[in-house]
Amino acid sequence: MTLNIITQTQYTKKLLAIMKQLYKLFLVPLLMFGSLSAQEQMGIIGANNWLRNWTEFNPKQINYNESSHILAGDITEDVTLLKKNTYVLEGNVFVTNGAVLSIEPGTVILGDTKSKASLTIAKGSAIIAEGTETDPIVFTSNATVKKAGDWGGLIVLGDATTNKLGNNTVSSYYPNIDAADVMKTAFGGENNDSNSGIIKYVRVEYAGKKSNINKSSNAIVLAALGSNTEVDHVMVSYSAGNSFNIMGGHLDIHSMVSFKSKGNDYKFNYGANSNVHNSLAVRSPYISDTNGSRCLLVLSYNKESEVDFSKKGTNVFAKNITLLTDSKSLDSDINMGLVKEAVYVGNNTELEVSNSVISGFKSAVIISEKTDIVDENLSKIRFNNMHFNNCRGNIFVEYNSNNQNLEKWYSNPTFNNAYAQSNHNETFIKLDTNRPDYRLKPNTVLALKQ
Length: 450
Known about the structure:
There is one protein chain. The chain has helices spanning about 10-40, 330-335, 375-380, 405-410, 425, 445-450, and strands at about 70-75, 80, 85-95, 100-105, 110, 120, 125-130, 135-140, 155, 195-205, 210, 215, 220-225, 230-235, 245, 255-260, 265-270, 275-285, 295-300, 315-325, 340-345, 350-355, 355-360, 365, 380-385, 385-390, 395, 420, 430, 435-440. By secondary structure, it is mainly β. Helices cover about 15% and strands about 35% of the residues. The protein contains six helices and 30 strands. The chain has a 26-stranded parallel β-sheet that branches. A two-stranded antiparallel sheet has the order 11-12. It has a two-stranded antiparallel sheet with strand order 29-30.
């Protein structure tokens, strides 16, 4: 009988060979599954297309009933707007005196074009606009031929903190405002847990009326709102100003949609501390402001002289957001200067974007020229597990075309960022105008990373 005797070294080699086989059989599929799971979590997410039923990507095709009730002046007592009625806002309507404006699901409110109408929930009052997926609340224009900037928009003012000095008001956003009404436009305080109500399953269309020759109002202004205010499943389309203008406060938002705004899609300023989750911005190169409109504009101030630097600056955490340009000829539109950057990060701000998609821009991100590009500041501007697609470069400092150091920094494997040059039909599930699905196609990023 012959004995097969192996040395310790031979035994170790055989053991390592067996372990490698096990790695191929079990660990590699596990890693692929992990990558697939990560891929499926990039950009807007959901087991189903959550945009269905309550959104409207072609609002001009919808006809509403003629108005049967007028809302004008001040609302100083609790009021409920009923679905069976169609309301028209005339002039600047203020909800004051601690009153609560409740709106039934399915209610339609028309902003009057001639009087440049707006609806303001003053500090201390509240709005309960809680639609449903199949019965959203709609704010739109009363014009026969609707267009961006037909009416003022919706303004909600709270008493949470900001970093802005002085007596804070939004009076400059009104196309016309009486001196007696200016005090009703104040915002800010010390109550970061305050509750200004609910805005849920709501559409706001054709807002953003010009307030003066240089400035437009915004579709929705959310100023100094506390953390107990609920804002989700809100769609703004065709705004002449910003879609969502969030100033100060401690407000979290999710499942939001900004569609073809002329202004910025999501603007954060004056010490806003916010989380943004599972939200979408779709830009059009033929509508955007020529001065430069971004999907995500993150600032701590407009001028250094107007803020208190002892107070916390703007800090935004965005997860599972999708930012894209709807263009049939992206290269041509970029060359003509019609497509700008997706994200602008101002000085003295903090921004983290993760598990998100930025697709079809001149560049993905611009960092203010006033920001020193050092490790301390870059640690406050984070992009993790991103899918950068079809951008001419990704992250730049303002007015500086050399981004090699930034590309190297954010291309570090620890950030797990992916880069591609695919058209949108290859990237997203469905892009028809009636019922689009802006989730990533399955395996889009997995195939890229293999």
